[in-house]
Amino acid sequence: MSERLRASKLTWRVTLAAVLIVFFGLVVGSKSAVADGADVPEQVSAYFATGLVPRLADLYTSGAKDGATAPFDATAKVGTIRRLSAWTAAFSAGRSTDTPTELTNDWVAPVSDKSGTVLGLATVWINPGSDLPELADFVLGSTLVAAVDTAPATMRLVHDSDHSAWFATDGKKLVPLVAGTSGLGAESTVADYQKLRGAKTTEPVGTSAAANPGLVFAGVTLGVVVLLLAVVILLPGRKRRDGPESVAGDSAVDDSMVDDFSATTATPPVPSPATPIGE
Fold first, then answer.
1. What's the mean pLDDT in 208-213?
2. What are the CB-based long-range contacts (under 8 Å, 24+) for 205-213?
3. For residue range 19-31, what is the model confidence (pLDDT) as tens digits?
4. Does 214 reside within a domain?
5. Global pTM exceeds 0.90
């Protein structure tokens, strides 16, 4: 093989390796940026900018839904986009963990009209089926938007959907934005809330039966049915076993009676040969 051919193959391999390294670097880098929540994916940003308001107009403009008259038009404005976090499975299970929260597939942003009046908070997600961003939820009114706006930009925004609560956290400190049914009304810590959350979701022992009298009745009814079935199934077998035993008993009595009769009845003597007359 000529030196020129060898050099050409070597150059091709080096070039291919460099391309692969750059490609994987870009992929990993983009994923890291999204995972850290520092950047909003381009397709999500584009949907908030051009697709959200028309979708809201379809759903909430007068005539599209009863009682909805929100003015969603080209003058509506979308505010700052923030990615939502949620409690991890380990945190929800009450286990000790260094990662109590995880990023979700949801982004939120306030929507207001041309005068600056807040119309509501929109939640957008990337549909796993189509891999396209879509409107996931929209909460009309300014209450939730005002609460979310108080969350520091340096803290994660946590939506506790199990308790209809919203929090801001840095991993240790926990600030309730919307208490919901969480029971947390003031600033606390993630560890303390985990204990409170576990206490609220633990059902006291012995309350299930009391809260479900129908279940007790069903259990008693089932027991009676099983007992009746057992009687119906076993009774014919009992009768069949009793029959042969009675017959056998009667036979035993008859045999004994025959034996007793034979024992008490004298056997007639066998006559001796007759003596000839005249002898």
1. 40
2. none
3. 344 344 434 333 3
4. no
5. no
